[in-house]
Amino acid sequence: MVDPLGLIGVVGVAIQIIQLAAQLGLDWKHAPADASSFMLELQSLKTVLSETNMNGRHSALLSQLDPLHDTDTKAMVSACKCELESLLEDLKKRAQGHSLGWERLKGAFQAEARRVLDWLTPADYGPHHSDIFRRRQPGTGLWLLESDKFQTWVDGEKQMLFCPGVPGAGKTMLASIVIDHLQSRFHDRPGAGIAFVYCNFRRQDEQTAEHLIASLLKQLACRLSSLPGAVKALYDRHAARGLRPSLGALAEALRCVAAMYEEKVFIVVDALDECKATDGTRENLMRMLLSLQSADSLKVNLLTTSRSISDVERQHASVPRLEVRATKGDIQQYVQGHMSELKPFVARRQDLQKEIVTGISDAVDGIFLLAILFFQSFRDKTSPKAIKNSLEKLRKQSITSDDNQKLAVLRAAYDEAMARINGQMPGDRDLALKVLSWITCARWPLRALELRHALAVELGEEELDEENLPETEDMVSVCAGLVTIDHESGIIRLVHYTTQEYFNQTRSQWFPDAESDITKTCATYLSFTTFGSGPCRTDNGFHDRVRFNPLYAYATHNWAYHAHNAQEDCKEVIDFLRMDAQVQAAYQALLCYGLSSRVPGNEGIKWSAAILAPPEAFAGLHLAAYSGLDKALGKLLLFESMDPDRSDGLGRTPLSYAAWQGHTADRKGRTPLMHAAKKGHVTTVKALLTISRVDIDAKELRGRTALSRAAARGHTGVVELLLDTGQVDVNAAGTFKYDDHEEALTPYMVAVKNGHTATAEVLFKHGGRAIEGGTGEMVDCEIPSYSQE
């Protein structure tokens, strides 16, 4: 029988190896597969031998061996010990000389995994989740966690739970409570995966189905011990070629990664109703998730929240549902927990506190947002009577179960909040309106620092005065509870999406000039002298420019968007477009950030500042055309120095920029092709004809086409190019003005009338005819011998 001391010796050496391997990092989750496999086997060997020795089972275990093999067994144990001792000595030597190298190698593994996962999507929903959950009043939401339907969803396999609710019921907060509950319960269970997304109406352009599936995939991949092969394969197939994986490829990778979890996978999707529906995003997302959840080989539990809208209800028709509504207990806990925010006299009146708690909880009928807004309305009350009057007002507008009435009361609460804002001192009122207008009209969510810089801009000044920066706390406090800060991300936002809907409907009432004001601010910011050095020549220089000028990224990408929406022509825009250095700097930012990359030769590519500088001679005309600002183009052309056919260093004219950027028509329906045809720019017309999205036979508001405009000017070469496409109506009639009257003329007729004989002959050969007066029929007519002058 084997001596127990032999077993103890093997166990002792195994323990030393395990400890030393941990120092070297061989137990690290991204360690090479063979090292990880060996460590698992060694752990198992140590465990078995330790239990055998400690429990006195060695004799029972080894007694089953044939006595003839006892010597062989002893030899095997001895040999095992010798091999392990040899390995231990080797590891000790490596630990002395190579631990630092292994740390570097381990760091390289981690960096590679981060690079792949960040390529998959840079989005991180963790900070947003933390921001939401941080605002939870302790003790709220327990009704959901303790419900039978939720317990079934958590404990079962392949479960679904749909949690609909009216706007403002607290769906997003409850989603965060669910996510936190899952993270707490399964944090030490690697066999369970957890992933979640918060859909947001302000991020609809970003939150495509691809983005949302990639985000779920990234979260599940991060929780595993090493980078999944399916994710690495996606990266290898696409990244080097600058491509993005398709929705199908992402969904397949998500399926593969979900299958790696032995226990189950939980997926939580909040606010499906805020996911874009018009482009199929919502439909595609749910189709992919339902396919994942129903797959036989997977154990995926899916929970979704949403308003009760028809298409979402249809997708969840056969799914268990648990309606979300704020309970009276939750409302009362929230109000009591924030009572210290009211005036000091409230703290001294227990009876008044009880009235406030009861009055608000009775008035809101399950809408948590209303409780927040109602409570905010008490913060400026300076006497018990004022509070009691407000409570009486709440009782009179008590809500029934009718959803439309709930929305009406919610709107009334917003009206009340705006009345309080307008009743503030002028400085506070003006600051609040500026904050609300920027947040409402901004094209993407703004960080508080970006908004501070926006509000500090002074029209007509050449630089930002930091003494003019408002404080973040003041920007929030003057807005009567309608604005909040996400402290993890730094985003300043409206308190709820219904707040955005309210301001969308009442924008003309509260801030009618917002688009013009934002346009002026952005244009002034871009005109600052600090950008007068033009484009940056290094990546570090560009990153410093963006870091030290927080509004720069937003202004460069969105000034033109706001200019399109402005109700007036802004002098600041023209001033900016006449500054070549600042214009080139702004264009570089457009390209480097990659938010708008539809430029000739650079489609779909994100460039670094060290590589990309705007072409020489790129000017305001090009940027205005690129941005589709027809009015600005017209005003720029009034200046003598502005050449409408000015080419940049790559030979591109303003017209070619407009065409490449897809600005297909101005307000009169005239397309870049029409402009090029009218001017007789054969080269530009050729280029435009190669673009599939160009409508060759488009008509402007007066019915004229590119063909008729070229014919009217006698540009025979352009006429021939258009006719050769076979895609134009040679006899499309448009209205042309002559002196004091207008005539409906075909291209052939206008060429004849204007004396362009050669052009008329080409048109006639291709079937061009005149219109019979009064009948509208096409007839032949003689081509007069007009001069070409």
Automatic annotation (TrEMBL):
<feature type="repeat" description="ANK">
    <location>
        <begin position="668"/>
        <end position="689"/>
    </location>
</feature>
<dbReference type="InterPro" id="IPR002110">
    <property type="entry name" value="Ankyrin_rpt"/>
</dbReference>
<dbReference type="InterPro" id="IPR036770">
    <property type="entry name" value="Ankyrin_rpt-contain_sf"/>
</dbReference>
<dbReference type="Pfam" id="PF24883">
    <property type="entry name" value="NPHP3_N"/>
</dbReference>
<protein>
    <submittedName>
        <fullName>Uncharacterized protein</fullName>
    </submittedName>
</protein>
<dbReference type="InterPro" id="IPR056884">
    <property type="entry name" value="NPHP3-like_N"/>
</dbReference>
<feature type="repeat" description="ANK">
    <location>
        <begin position="702"/>
        <end position="726"/>
    </location>
</feature>
<keyword id="KW-0677">Repeat</keyword>
<dbReference type="Pfam" id="PF22939">
    <property type="entry name" value="WHD_GPIID"/>
</dbReference>
<dbReference type="InterPro" id="IPR054471">
    <property type="entry name" value="GPIID_WHD"/>
</dbReference>
<dbReference type="InterPro" id="IPR027417">
    <property type="entry name" value="P-loop_NTPase"/>
</dbReference>
<feature type="domain" description="Nephrocystin 3-like N-terminal">
    <location>
        <begin position="139"/>
        <end position="307"/>
    </location>
</feature>
<dbReference type="Pfam" id="PF12796">
    <property type="entry name" value="Ank_2"/>
</dbReference>
<keyword id="KW-0040">ANK repeat</keyword>
<feature type="domain" description="GPI inositol-deacylase winged helix">
    <location>
        <begin position="429"/>
        <end position="505"/>
    </location>
</feature>
